[in-house]
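B., you asked whether I could sanity-check this one before it goes into the benchmark set. Here's the sequence:
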Amino acid sequence: MIVLVALGIIVGLGVLLFLWFIGIYNGLVRLKNAVKNAWSQIDVQLKRRHDLIPNLIETVKGYMTHERETLENITKARNLAANASGVGEQAKAEGQLNQALSSFFLVVENYPDLKANTNFLSLQEELTSTENKIGFARQAYNDAAMQFNNKIEMFPSNIVAGMFNFRQAEFFEIEDEAERAVPKVSFS
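And here's what the prediction gave me:
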């Protein structure tokens, strides 16, 4: 009788341990998928920005005949950003694109007719809106990455994470201080 009670307790503890293990594993999977979803939201907004840039360049080509290098730099930076893979590479490429756009918007100040063009103003407004959405998406991604990374590092979930090879999510960070500058999109 004592053996049966002891065996029941051991089996009960084993079942509880198994359920606890499943709960931790499922929590890690949920957080990993939240990180992937958050990255997808950034990717959607970056794609939108990358799609707006050729239209912006086409709109200004007639006005900016002497600024070919500026337009080519934006196109090169856009292509690098569109083809970047991984969080770190994407952050670096987007920083370079931001620098190219900043230079572009400084040059635009020299073209009053362009600043009054309705197509240009519309594209500028869309780009500004997209930049805001990208900022919010980056913040959501970094929040999801932090929650996931915390779960991976904290005991006892770190044991389950190690057993199933869960790896930390990379934060979306811009390392170069010059790249942190937001492109100036005001035309007043």
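One thing to flag: The chain has a mean pLDDT of 88. Otherwise nothing jumped out at me.
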